[in-house]
Design goal:
Blueprint (H helix, E strand, L loop, with lengths): L1 H20 L16 H4 L2 E11 L4 E14 L2 E10 L9 E11 L2 E5 L3 E10 L2 E12 L2 E13 L4 E10 L2 E12 L3
Antiparallel strand pairs: 1-2, 1-10, 2-3, 3-4, 4-5, 5-6, 6-7, 7-8, 8-9, 9-10
């Protein structure tokens, strides 16, 4: 009886573990509208408001970001300037400049000064799924953190963004962000 219970528990644990590995594919959003056109949405000035929550869901910090975006052919630049609430000296403002390349077929690649290697993304319908490793400064140390980033255009001028942060497969927290294009 104990042996059967152990086997059942082990089988359930394995099923949960393997089920957690199954990811959502960006293709399932292909029919969703408005269709995300990166060159159109990320063109001009955008404002964003967001927050970072730890793994328990507690809001640790919130922020405002201003993004100056432009495209030349298949290359885009996103110049992001973050202002964080509270925090340590040197936190404000934080700047990240992304260089993006439209690789065609809904595929995107990107680099930035604090991104380790190259970010990879894919679009379909109103969604962008974006993965990268970010070198974050935490308590005076630099830690490489995995980002699993989903963006959804929900209106002509609005995009919602949710990012999961992890290290060695363990969730560290989430970033939630709302972006709005400024109208001239």
């Amino acid at each position: 009886m104990i042996r059967q219970t152990r086997r059942l528990c082990l089988a359930l644990f394995a099923a949960i573990l393997l089920g957690g590995c199954a990811g959502i594919e960006v293709e399932q959003y292909r029919a969703e509208t408005p269709k995300l056109d990166l060159r159109k949405f990320f063109n001009g000035t955008l404002d964003g408001w967001g927050m970072f929550q730890d793994r328990s869901g507690k809001v640790i910090k919130h922020f405002h970001v201003v993004i100056e975006a432009r495209w030349e052919g298949d290359k885009g630049t996103l110049d992001e300037r973050f202002t964080w609430s509270g925090g340590e000296p040197g936190d404000n403002p934080v700047r990240r400049v992304w260089t993006l390349r439209d690789a065609g077929g809904g595929h995107l690649a990107g680099t930035a000064g604090d991104v380790v290697g190259q970010a990879r993304g894919e679009t379909a319908g109103n969604a962008l799924h974006w993965r990268y490793v970010l070198a974050l400064s935490v308590d005076g140390k630099v830690v490489d953190v995995d980002f699993d980033d989903w963006m959804f255009q929900v209106g002509d001028q609005v995009m919602l963004n949710r990012s999961s942060m992890s290290k060695y497969g363990f969730t560290l927290g989430e970033v939630t962000l709302s972006l709005k294009r400024r109208t001239p």
